[in-house]
Amino acid sequence: MANRKSAIPFSSTPEQDQKLEEVLQELRGTQGAVMPALQKAQEIYGYLPIEVQQRVAAGLNVPLEEIYGVSTFYSQFTLNPKGQYKVSVCLGTACYVKGSGDIYNALKEKLGIDGGECTADGKFSLDACRCIGACGLAPVITINDEVYGRLIVDDLDEILARYK
After folding, report:
1. Residue 5 located in a structural domain
2. 3-state DSSP helix/strand/coil percent for the chain, to nearest 5?
3. Which of 36, 94, 117, 131 lies 20 to 30 Å from 49, alpha-carbon distance?
């Protein structure tokens, strides 16, 4: 769903824009500047919407296609904003065998978003991950730094209610 438009419109502050401009001035003309520029841009804005990618492309005098290609190739980059509460469902083998796929699908339905997306109110974002090392608690989800294990789909309403 990398191409899907976020429900949250992009906005930035003058401070963020100034920081990005400083980064681009520093890196302009430098060999291999795309990765560090995108990393800094994501630190500044939290994600890489098309508006930021366009600014990086213009600032480094690099084709937008190259910026987009790097932004979508590397998993460290996200094109969508993250929610206040970052929900991550482990789809590693132990969790998946014990039903994390059903939990992931139920969360998509309950939150009204797909993986990699953020709810329109900015509260929740949903992602899947591979093994978080809590196999004994399978299936597992995390919400920010909180771990919830030995879950069934019926547990989700109660868990989500804690964050609303």
Report:
1. no
2. 45, 10, 40
3. 131
